[in-house]
Design goal:
The structure is a single chain. The chain is mainly alpha-helical. 60% of the residues lie in helices and 4% in strands. The N and C termini lie far apart (63 Å). It binds arginine. Arginine binds next to α6. The site of arginine has 10 residues, from α6.
Length: 467
Amino acid sequence: MKKSAPVSRSRRFAGGPDADVVRFTESISFDWRLWRQDILGSIAHATMLKKIGILSPEEQRAIVKGLDHIGREIAAGTFQWQPVLEDVHMNIEAELTRRVPAGAKLHTARSRNDQVALDTRMWLRDEIFELTREIRSLQNALVRLGEQNSDVLIPGYTHLQRAQPVYFAHHLLAYVEMLERDRERLKDSFKRVNVCPLGSGAIAGSTLPLDRELMARLLGFVDAKGRARLTQNSMDAVSDRDFAVEFCGHAALLAVHLSRLAEDVVLWASSEFKFVKLADAYTTGSSLMPQKKNPDVAELTRGKSGRVIGNLVSLLTLLKGLPMTYNRDLQEDKERLFDTADTVRAMARLMAAMLGNTIVNAAVCNAAADDPALLATDLADYLVRKGTPFRAAHQLVGAVVSLAEEAGKPLNRLTPEELRSVDKNFTADALKVFNLKQAMARRNITGAPGTKEVRKQLGRWRKILGA
Ligand code: ARG
């Protein structure tokens, strides 16, 4: 055998693969990212093989030392990846074996099928941790922006039509709640990622007495009580990619939330709204129109949600027709998974940075919220307090709105007499309904945008997020 011949290409094969086939089938161009996990997995496997007597202590030591050297070279960027060796698993093992003869024993009772499942799970564990941290930073940016503008009111919108006044912070906290659900979903999925498939072999485990618990423990596949968590069916273990689908699903929903936030920012930054001013660093100019300042970070956050959704659909489609168990198709999971993780992390990070450098135009916001029409529902509630059924009150206030429109004046400029002409229950105090400050003080049930409640919610989040 030539030195660089693929380790898995046995003497059964007469020649090497066609160059175009190598290009078509290789995964080293993207799965090199799993090198750390691959080396850690191999060290745990070698340690277990020593324990059951397959490797001598000297052989195990030589393997660990060899892997350690390779790891340093990869980290330093001096390691030569070879596409002809297909993937990260064979590249590392072949080079180890070239340097350390005992390396040829490392693949005992192991297949790339359980190896790749292991590496991907270990990689995803770290990603989940990093992404939940990124979500926390974004929540922090939202809460801080709310705290800095805690007196600012805006119209709340339904159907993109002005509905009722809310604190700007209340609107921001809506996203904090969404992001918290995203974070919880990711955290919950961790326990399904954190299960060790090593020992499943290619499909049917091994005839050798492997100590699967030892490997799981060494690699941190343990529950809260420190008990090893092992896959319980070798066929499921090598063909299961549910954990990747789950991550991509949670990431897709997170991306949709970020996209909606981005859309709000795009609207708010427009000349029509003028609610916020984005820092120059998060916008670009137009190559043609000198006056333009475009909210590109927000737009691309919205745009990139598309590929994150696409990645989820790709993964599901990839899996739907696969017979048991491992099929090479599964190699296609990695680029979708990597791209999803990279993209959502960047989206969250940049949205946090952009919001941290956004100035709220308080005067414009407050002016937009100070439209008495937004308190028409409060006027209906006024009649409800006097015993009028809400449906009737709704109609009566509708008549008041028409009256104001005909008279060409805002609702709060109607006279007590005009109001009384619609319903006798409108007494002199009815116009007090339009005092915005008092109107906000009245909205104080849990979850409402009232003055006290929003302060309470900001305080609650500040506690959760820390100073
Ligand atoms: N590169 C492969 C993947 O990502 C590793 C497993 C290959 N297994 C095999 N039997 N060819 O799925």
